[in-house]
Amino acid sequence: MARNRTFILYGLALVGFVLLPQLISVKYYIHLSVLALIWVIAAQGQNLIQGYTGYVSIVQAGFMGIGAYSTALMGMHFDLPVWLTIILAPFVTAFFALLTGYPSLRVKGHYFAIVTLAFNMVIFIVLMNFHELTQGEAGITGIPKPGGKDALFNWRDRETYYYFVLIIATLMTGLAALIVRSRIGQILVAIRQNEDLVGAVGIAAWKYKLFAFVTSAMFAGLAGAIYAHYQSFINPEIFGIAQSLDAILAVIIGGSGTIAGPIIGAFFVVFLPEYLRFADSFRLILYGLVLVLATIFMPRGIAGIARDLMEKRQGRT
Question: How far is residue 170's CA from residue 191's CA, in Å, rounded to a whole number?
Answer without folding.
Answer: 27
